[in-house]
Specification:
This protein has helices at 6-14, 28-33, 35-39, 44-53, 72-75, 106-115, 148-157, 193-196, 465-471, 477-480; strands at 16-18, 21-22, 66-67, 94-96, 120-121, 127-128, 166-176, 218-231, 253-263, 271-277, 285-290, 295-299, 328-341, 351-352, 358-359, 362-375, 382-390, 396-403, 408-418, 435-444, 449-459. The protein is an alpha+beta fold.
Length: 482
């Protein structure tokens, strides 16, 4: 019988990581091939048991270390089950970076200090007396408090984002696991000028971004898109205007957002506008321009569990969570230190791995606030979702979706970046002192596929009243298409 490698022996010694989470002990290559099978064994209970077992674990690695596949047993306490399995491949290299702290801007901190003590929760979880800043102190979140889950959700909702995220050149890639994407190329182009005229973009994204997508995976389709979300209320920087954006009827809205697609040709010009109201009980309004119909149509924005344009991500998963808080029951599971990719090595994330869905960047040990949410709608396809949110800046780190049987269905791993570290597109980032997402990898373990979402030219820019009014004018959707 052949002698097992040290890496294989190490993995075998781990045995059952948590409940049904096992590592195949037939060699590293075989373990890499079987990661989907292992992830499919993970349940919501598996994840919770892992968290409870390793809640107070301390790492035996340090910043500057480069960890490889033989170090996976050391990472078990810090990388959630379901996700750690996909890291079991020979080329794995995890650069451990120091944990970087991200100071939010002074006006946000001042708002928090001035108004946080007056915020209250209604019995159903809606907030009262919220003005701006962080609604609830992190120190008050307690697994024994039944209201801490919804408190954490509101802290995520109202994290500091300046006026909101803008993405000039976003692209998504449909990834089917196994196989390769040899010969694949991806060249970006700019969106219609009418969409981005109000933001002072002076930097340029690279035209050929093929170099960002390494590793395996069969890439079936790509989309290129523009996105901008603008917040209208609870704005610390608008104290002079009562913390409200100085545009007509701004007080009625939490935010508005537009997502427009301009490549490939068959969906070019497709665009969606969503209105989120400040009233937490009022459903969203949404409109779409569909080029094949050549008309604007009102659409339902309340069925957020549907995936977008054939991708693997649903609307309520954007940003880590984009649904209404009151549509869910919340449970706070506690805090957990996890090792996750954070802040790309350059301005843009690179990927590698057997299916091209592992970030090739630095990993940081981050304190996560962990919640489990349960849909109130019995028709929802998920039984629960576990969200890991950064407890300092509240950006999403990773979340796990569980199907109606409680088995792992999808994961989305997010990588955030701090505005002050931007080299390219500094003009819309420097001085903001906020975190925004740079990429999201949606991994569907039940269907052996995934979607890679990249934001190029992204940031948290200031806005002009005139641009905001015209950008979200429903009557202009048809005029913008090309």
């Amino acid at each position: 019988m052949a002698t097992k490698s040290k890496a294989t022996v190490g993995l075998c010694r781990v045995g059952i990581l948590v409940v049904a989470l096992t590592v195949v002990c037939t060699g590293v290559a075989q373990a890499a091939a079987d990661w989907i099978f292992q992830s499919q064994k993970v349940t919501a209970e598996t994840l919770i048991q892992w968290m409870n077992k390793y809640r107070d674990a301390k790492p035996d690695f340090k910043p500057g270390d480069v960890l490889t596949v033989k170090d996976l047993p050391r990472l078990v306490p810090f990388i959630p089950p379901g996700y750690i399995e996909m890291l079991n491949f020979p080329e794995l290299h995890i650069e451990v970076w120091p944990t970087r702290h991200h100071q939010m801007r002074a006006d946000f901190m001042d708002c928090t200090e001035k108004f946080q003590n007056q915020v209250r929760l209604k019995p159903d979880g809606a907030m009262e007396n919220y003005v701006c800043g962080q609604p609830f102190p992190v120190s008050t979140l307690d697994p024994n408090d039944p209201m801490s889950g919804i408190k954490a959700a509101w802290d995520f909702e109202y994290r500091w984002q300046n006026y909101g995220l803008a993405v000039k050149n976003g692209f998504a890639v449909w990834d089917r696991f196994d196989g390769n994407h040899d010969g694949f190329t991806l060249t970006t182009e700019d969106p219609p000028a009418e969409w981005n005229v109000g933001v002072k973009w002076t930097s340029e994204t690279p035209k050929d971004v093929t170099y960002l997508l390494k590793g395996g995976g069969h890439f079936q389709r790509t989309l290129q898109w523009f996105h901008q979300r603008v917040y209208f209320t609870h704005l610390p920087q608008e104290a002079i205007h009562g913390y409200i954006l100085p545009v007509p009827n701004a007080k009625a809205f939490e935010f508005k957002e537009i997502t427009g697609f301009y490549s490939p040709f068959d969906i070019r010009g497709t665009a969606f506008i969503i209105y989120r109201y400040d009233d937490p009980y009022r459903p969203d309004d949404a409109w779409a321009y569909i080029p094949t119909l050549r008309r604007v149509r009102r659409i339902s924005a309340e069925v957020k569990s549907d995936t977008l344009l054939g991708s693997d991500a649903s609307l309520d998963e954007f940003y880590g969570f984009s649904d209404h808080e009151l549509n869910w029951k919340w449970k706070f599971l506690g805090f957990k230190d996890i090792l996750m990719p954070m802040e790309p090595r350059g301005d843009y994330t690179r990927s590698y791995g057997p299916n091209g869905m592992v970030p090739d960047t630095g990993w940081q040990l981050r304190k996560a606030a962990v919640t489990q949410r349960f849909p109130k709608d019995p028709r929802h396809p998920m039984s629960s979702v576990v969200n890991f949110w950064d407890a300092e800046d509240w950006i999403a780190l990773i979340h796990h979706d569980f199907d109606q049987k409680g088995k792992l269905w999808r994961m989305i791993q997010w990588e955030g970046t701090y505005t002050e570290n931007a080299k390219n597109f500094a003009e819309i980032n420097h001085g903001v002192k906020a975190m925004h997402w740079d990429h999201g990898y949606c991994i569907d373990v039940q269907n052996n596929r995934g979607t890679l979402w990249f934001g190029l030219g992204d940031g948290n820019p200031s806005v002009t009243a005139g641009h905001v009014v015209s950008l979200y004018d429903i009557n202009r959707l048809e005029q913008i298409h090309r």
